[in-house]
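Lecture notes, continued. The same structure-token format from the folding unit now serves as the input rather than the output. Read the line below as a description of shape only.
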């Protein structure tokens, strides 16, 4: 992800503006949190919150406690505590807003919180950069090892620890995989400690990123932090065709954006007749063929004539249903549909008087061209015979 004024470099740091992810647009990093408290000073006697949010490769974030003798700001590269050795990451949030994020993600502010060692030196950054450069090659070789062992798994990403002593392999699999031999082979080939971590297909798309069918970057890799379950009923409520190719995202699951407008549709359907409702008329039984929730229209057709649809408003349908409950039949749907006939306004009118876009496609008149040639020919002078 990058700003409009710069291109994204290694680990999300911008190449152009050189602000290390702290520019005004705040668009150089994945899943950034805008610090709207950065311009506000603390009350007298209040000390700044002693924890920071640190981002590692892709979208992985952790919270760390900062010692009193270290002053950190957004964009600083720091060395942090790890299970063994140290890790290197970038500060993405500092101050009181970190307290809110920890409460939101249910992270306890106690002694178990890992600590920040120091600001990363140039030696730490060079070693970290060297490890990052090896990730693509190691990922390729690890995939080849998994294929040779005939393991039904896909290694999607590799993340090195900052000191280069450990590598985490992220993989996806449909079933349980016995990768003990794979770990032995990789530890022998790479000379590092190996950790295998299984992730879902949505987490894989979040880490790798990409462009969705809408033409924008994936929501899960830019701003979406939680994955809510998406069911096919979300598509049914929005009257979308149940086409797996159109409803599935890059991860192969249903698109997360199907839930964005679902509440609006459910709110509109509260006072809307059911699509399974049947209307009893003297002309015959009528079934609902189509609904338009926001225009408040329904299309009904008779059982004997399903190709001919009649447009009714939801108030008219509810009125007919109430009469049917009293065992009363209306004469026909045409009486109600005739009240809804309106002159259709064209979607586009040539009010400015533009020329037709197909004016150059019209064939020229050959007879007119011949007449123009005759007019251009000069008249022959008459000669008298002596």
């Amino acid at each position: 992800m990058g700003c409009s004024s710069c291109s994204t470099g290694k680990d999300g740091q911008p190449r152009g503006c050189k602000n290390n992810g702290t520019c005004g647009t705040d668009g150089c990093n994945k899943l950034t949190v805008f610090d709207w408290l950065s311009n506000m000073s603390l009350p007298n006697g209040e000390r700044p919150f002693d924890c920071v949010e640190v981002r590692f490769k892709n979208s992985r974030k952790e919270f760390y406690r900062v010692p009193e003798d270290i002053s950190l700001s957004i964009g600083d590269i720091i060395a942090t505590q790890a299970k063994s050795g140290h890790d290197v990451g970038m500060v993405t949030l500092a101050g009181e807003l970190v307290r809110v994020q920890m409460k939101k993600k249910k992270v306890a502010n106690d002694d178990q919180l890992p600590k920040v060692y120091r600001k990363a030196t140039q030696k730490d950054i060079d070693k970290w950069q060297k490890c990052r450069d090896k990730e693509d090659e190691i990922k390729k070789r690890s995939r080849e090892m998994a294929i040779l062992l005939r393991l039904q798994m896909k290694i999607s990403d590799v993340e090195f620890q900052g000191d280069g002593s450990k590598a985490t392999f992220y993989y996806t699999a449909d079933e349980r995989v016995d990768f003990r031999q794979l770990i032995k082979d990789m530890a022998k080939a790479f000379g590092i400690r190996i950790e295998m971590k299984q992730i879902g297909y949505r987490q894989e798309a979040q880490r790798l990123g990409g462009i969705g069918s809408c033409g924008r970057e994936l929501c899960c890799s830019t701003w979406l932090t939680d994955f809510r379950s998406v069911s096919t009923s979300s598509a049914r409520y929005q009257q979308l065709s149940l086409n797996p190719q159109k409803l599935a995202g890059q991860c192969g699951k249903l698109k997360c954006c199907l839930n964005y407008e679902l509440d609006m549709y459910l709110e509109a359907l509260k006072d809307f007749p059911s699509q399974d409702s049947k209307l009893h008329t003297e002309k015959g039984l009528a079934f609902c063929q189509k609904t338009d929730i926001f225009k408040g229209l329904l299309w009904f057709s008779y059982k004997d004539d399903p190709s001919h649809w009649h447009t009714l408003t939801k108030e008219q349908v509810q009125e007919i249903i109430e009469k049917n409950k009293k065992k009363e039949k209306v004469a026909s749907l045409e009486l109600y549909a005739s009240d809804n006939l309106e002159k259709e306004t064209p979607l586009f009118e040539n009010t400015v008087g533009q020329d037709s876009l197909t004016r150059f496609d019209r064939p020229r008149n050959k007879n007119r061209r011949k007449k123009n040639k005759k007019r251009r020919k000069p008249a022959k002078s008459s000669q008298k015979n002596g």
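Point for the exam: The chain has twelve helices and twelve strands.
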